[in-house]
Design goal:
alpha+beta; globular; 11 strands; 174 residues
Length: 174
């Protein structure tokens, strides 16, 4: 029948093109390697964007353990600790240490402009197997990042928490 003949001719033509090398080959896998990037960042990765004292931060989802709603906080204050240490929040069998790291992240010249954690906190970002919780102002969402867009830090003797900067996103990768 005519349809079978047409399909047969099309398949034969495609096979002929393939054998002649006229068909385009598979695209090469793109190289995302960047000097100083961790192994998990040798390809695009997803990260959570959030703010602490209006400073935009990004944490790779591979390091994110969860997000807690501040309105449901069950904090136990811990007297005798620094003012950055807010308390302990029992969470799935782990006592997460909740901290306000704004003064560690924001340059000293802006410290007088930082609102108190009580007035700006809406969420807690859990990291390091939920051992630590960072109070934050706002969750901005999940983004996919190209490791080549990150200015990776090679010397992490100062600001060890800073893995790199994302100039295009105006944020710090922690």
């Amino acid at each position: 029948d005519l349809e079978s003949e047409f399909n047969g001719d099309c398949v034969a033509a495609m096979m002929e093109q393939e054998s002649c090398g006229d068909m385009q080959s598979e695209p090469e896998e793109e190289n995302y390697y960047v000097e100083g990037a961790p192994e998990w960042a040798h390809r695009p990765f997803q990260a959570l964007e959030f703010t602490i004292a209006k400073l935009k931060l990004v944490i790779p989802l591979i390091h994110l353990c969860g997000i807690l709603d501040w309105e449901r906080a069950e904090l136990t204050p811990m007297p005798g600790h620094s003012k950055q240490f807010i308390g302990v929040w029992p969470n799935h069998g782990i006592n997460s240490k909740i901290v306000d790291v704004a003064e560690m992240l924001v340059p000293k010249r802006y410290h007088d402009k930082i609102e108190t954690w009580q007035s700006r906190t809406t969420k807690v970002v859990l990291i390091d197997d939920s051992i630590w919780g960072l109070v934050c102002d706002e969750i901005l969402g999940v983004v996919t990042l190209d490791p080549r867009e990150v200015r990776w830090r090679s010397n992490r003797t100062q600001r060890a928490w800073l893995a790199g900067t994302l100039v295009g996103h105006m944020s710090a990768l922690i």
